[in-house]
Design a protein that fits this description.
Order of helices and strands: HEEEEEHHEHEEHEEE
Number of helices: 5
Oligomer: single chain
Helix content: 10-25%
Strand content: 15-25%
Number of domains: 1
Largest sheet: 4 strands, mixed
Radius of gyration: 20 Å
Structural class: alpha+beta
Amino acid sequence: MRPYQSTSIDRADYDDGMLNDWGIQHFHLGAVPYAKAPQFMDRTGPLLYAVVTAHTLYCLTVLKHKEWSNQKLLDVMHENFPEVTAGATLTSWNPGPPSLSVNYSDDEVAKLRAAGANAVTQRPDGTIMFGPGGGVTLDGRRGKQSAKVAQAVVDVRKAILAMENSIRDRINGTELAVPANGLDLRLTEIDGKLVAADSATGLQVEIGEPVVRSI
């Protein structure tokens, strides 16, 4: 597969932001050797975007060059290969999925990534997702290399579940009641802190430092 990858992989300092963040690689589709570097296949405008594991090649789609932050790639991955995204999705005990207070555009995702910030995104079915590749660190390296980033993902998930239990406990025995369709959880940033709030009851639980920072 190496001949179809970016010629930049021969550089010792090369770091692929899309791979680091989303775990997605891109492959050129040339049929003959590349004249400037025959160890690679010819460069093409359309690229194959795929996830590569030790045993499987998950082909997502063919798109034009530089679609590095196109969230449709995450949509395709989540819809067709949920086993690949399972570890990066935010699970909840709610009947309905939580929702984000901010939905970033593809351009905003690219800017956040370039700044070393991790954008939490949401799929069409409501699933909230962290970067399947592990996210990025402030120096642009792969988030899986950072125990702090990995622990932050775990902490947020635990905090969301704890918040649900906390709200249920706080409204138990009062005139309030848990809505029949469950709690409507939303993540937002308030005064520099990541806060999970329930729109029905108005209650909030502070999670801690924000996972996503604005540029």
